[in-house]
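Researcher: Next entry: RNA polymerase II associated protein 1 (Astatotilapia calliptera).
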Amino acid sequence: MFNVLFVSLTAMLRRPKPTDSEADLLREQEHFLTSGAPSAASVVRRPDKRRGEAGEGEGRTVLLNADLPDQLPSLTPAPPKKSRFKASRVTFEDEDAEERLDRHDTHISAVLSRIVERDTSSTPISLPAFTGMAFPKVLHRSETSNQVKAPLSSAGGKKSIFARQIAAQKLKECKTTLHSLSEAAPTPETTMDTDQLEPAAVSGPRLVSGQGLQGPDSSGETMRIHMENQAKLQAMSQSEILEEQKKLLFQLDPRLVDFVRSRKAQSVPSFPSPSKHPKDKSGTEDPPVQDVSRESGSCSAAVLCQKPQEVKMEGEEEELSAPPPAEDLPVKPQKEWVHMDKLEPEKLEWLRDLPEPRRKGTKKAMQARFDFAGTLIPPTEDLPTHLGLHHHGEEPERAGYSLQELFLLSRSQVIQQRTLSLSTLANILSKACAGEYVSVLKGSVTSTLLDAGLLFLLRFALDDSVEGVMSAAVHALKALLVCAEDEECLDCTFSWFRGLSSFPLLPSAQEEEDEEDEGLDESMKETAKEKEERKSDHEVARQDAVKGLLKMKLLPRLRYILEVVRPSPRVVQDVLEILTRIARHSSSSATQVLDCPRLMETVMSEFLPTSWSPSSQSIYGLPLSSAMKLLRVLATSGRHACARLVKSISRLSHLLSAEPNELLLEPTESLRITTEAYRLWAVAAGYGQACKLYIDLYPALVTALQSVHRLPPASDPLQPLQLQRFLALLSLLTQVTHTAGCHQDSGGEECPPPPPVSWGHVTGLQTSLMGHLKGFIKNLDDPLQKDGSLTLIPVYLVYLEAYYHQLSRQVFPVPLDSEIAKHASLYHQVALVVLPWLLPGSEYLVHELLSTIVFSKDFISEGHSGGPEAVELGELKLHEETQKDTSPSLQTVGALLREACVQLPSIRGCFLTHLAHLESSVIVSRDALLGHNPWIKSHLLPELTGPILPSDWPFLPLLSLYEQSGVSDGGGLAVEELPQGALQAVTHCLQWLLLLEVWREEALKVVLPVAKFARLSCVFLCSSDLFLERPVQRLTWGLFRLSTKLDSLDLNVPPPGLASFQDLYSALVSQYEAVSFGDRLFSCWVLLPLQRRYSTTMRLAVFGEHVGMLRSLGVTLEQLSIPIERFTSPPEDSLPLLRLYFRSLVTGTLKRSWCPVLYVAALSHVNSFIFSQDAAAQVQQHLTH
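Model: Predicted structure:
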């Protein structure tokens, strides 16, 4: 068997392998050819289409593998075939272009010229047939091919289209049934058989209509099904029918059974038999036809009359409730009342008297309801119904509308209801922003409305074609976005130091991190712009309302309202205030306002005209202060935006060249618009722009300054507006002074061109303004002029600061007053107080204070006037009073202070190094703080995220080291493993803290004592042996001694940044057990929180979970420097802790030689508990177990 298999395999040809050479392949080919075996495939050469068909021209040869020659074919390639189309595509340089165009022309005439018409002479011609159907077929709404016009119903009105369709369907079924019966009874014999049938067998189905079947014979199919059902019923006995009926009744829904029975009761009566008609010659053919027409008419009439019972919509399976008795109705209907033939009890309930409102208060939360003015209505208040606050929704007895009902009313089809709801929402938003609902409502009304989609509701309402609805939506949007109090405060602070600058009004909530970008490289992560574009309108509006409105194309709609609708003056003012709020949002929002097509052109042409008529009946064509304020806010966003707005400087010159009473406007409006004009000019001068106007309007400015010292009386209603105008004028002069002081610094290659004003243009103002200031200081004694003088004096001081600052930068020197050096210590204290208050935009001021004042020896007079020696004398006096052997480290505070004063330059370098990340912000804010106006790019400050420096900034190097090493490594790193310079940074930090605690205690009062203790604990938590270094230990001993003097140290208050102090203490105790080696400083630090006045939790942790540390707390009472009474008084009242005290004393875990302080405390508390209670035997017995 194996031999045969082998022979058969060897006789077969071998498949080529990848390792075969060309000789192997040729040998295999020769072996195949000599064997004469048939080929597995045959190759047929198909004819070439380009040379005609297969039978034309040269003969085509078909080669089979069996006819291949024995010799190998030649490897010389055959000549390439020529294409028939290639020659036509060859072009020559001298060829005529027109001939080439004609040859390739594909005009339609080239195609139509070859069309040959077909011969139609033998084709018969037939005329079109006339028909009554239109083409295309006309479809009527109430009548189709299977419908008929129905007569009026019995009620006297027309039936609905749906009812007529059902009637037509029934009529068709009746005709089909009668037709089939007439065909089935052509002879008297069949007539006699029909008389013997049951009526149910002849009548049609009551439930199955066949309307859902597709096809022309749907009614016939229904009748066949009905006949099959009838045949099955006739084949069953009475008992089988009853049994099946019981099964169906048990399985079906009772309501469905009642519905079937009601249909049976409403069924069409069966038709009479045709055999009852006379049988004469005239009636043999005609009567059946007459009977069909008569019966079909009766069938149709029956169906149409029964429409209220037969045609039901979704509720046809429900039981028909009996009408309520007349005495249960709120009113008794009369016969002569119109449309009362059919009662509707659910609507008549509206006429019933309202139930009495709640008389007593309840603690249960109730839905808030508001009146049309936005006032919250108490649940117990009973208001009359004529106010229109009652409705038939939820809680009809309560007056007012809920937020949900107002939202529903805003989508009403009635214009007045939409307007009323939007006006009410606007009033609610105004009161919510004023804080009137804080004490009476849970949660925020504004947040609730925004979550419910208020922005989308208002945006849709702005597109309403009715002006009243649109106006109400604008007012509601203004109430949502604009806070009048905030705008007033920003206007009042405009004249303060750096009052031109303002923070962007961005939402405080931070955006959550995108989980999709986690773990990706920085190059693969989406940019902020891409993420913003990917968000939907709802997501953007949920995070930022202004951004959401801008994405919903609010600006083009507001432009349309101003330009096309031209609404009432109130709506115009609201729109301008909304635009101002959007411009305050961010620089990008202000840019969108500027770039909106025709928006600013409409505002400037309609509400800031260069000329106007005093008798104008409309607000259009008159200058508005709100429009000028919009320009001022937009100019604050950047110097380029300001340059675009003030290019038409004629508007400012027209408004400021004349007195306010000469502007042909209302007195209040004229003062407001001139004030805003001065402010806009001041913003432009803050960029070094529009300063040439200062030279042109110098006489008008001098005239305005001369009227400043004549303050209007306090009884004048225009006094606040006049004061604001004077303040804006002084702010303008301050900015012009800054710009003039930069004249000599401009003109370089990388510098802007010099401003048109120089220092000589502003030197003459200082004398008159100084005289005004002296006069206002004298007016402080006058009660009538005191308030006005206090308002103007700070602005004069700001001007003088700008003047003397720029004067010091001129070529001639300015002498320094020697009296300033006497108050150096006061300046240092003020600098320390101001430092943690500075906000973003003042980074350069922070840098200057730290570099020149805070760490300067000249401003810490105690360091070179006997301050350390005085501290040492105080320690010697304390030592003489106590007469106890204290630790040597407690008498070194004076020496430590002396050493800290020497290291002040190094301390300054340490803190500036940790603030190096603010370098870019320092450069940006430098020009604004130094008054380099031509270099300022924007008066819009960075986003407000809190002060530049935290209130605990003196602990910054220590906290930074803890975040780098203590958190990640669990405090297990040695000093050598810490980052380079860590020991020196901690030493400088502790030196600065000691200096502040001794000589500048007021500067650290903003930091809670518990926060100081928690941050100093980082000395022990950031490393395993940092606290053992001699300089660190000496400084920490001194700070510990100062901490023990504070009776205000309350460890029960959680430190800022921590959930509770107990968590920090647990970490301290664990670190003590791991790395302390019984160090006295660390032991005192751990013992301090175990005083009796602090939480019992920490003492329970030491005596319970960390009882082993009691062997190493060998601090004596003298070394602790804390009175022992702090540990023993008052007596302990915690039974679990007393049990642990007693167990540690009995078992010997706590000994006097190991832990003297806690031994005395535990023994005192146990003795006090045992000998002070006579009835504590049961408790003592419990403690012994």
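Model: Note for the record: The two ends are 95 Å apart (CA to CA).
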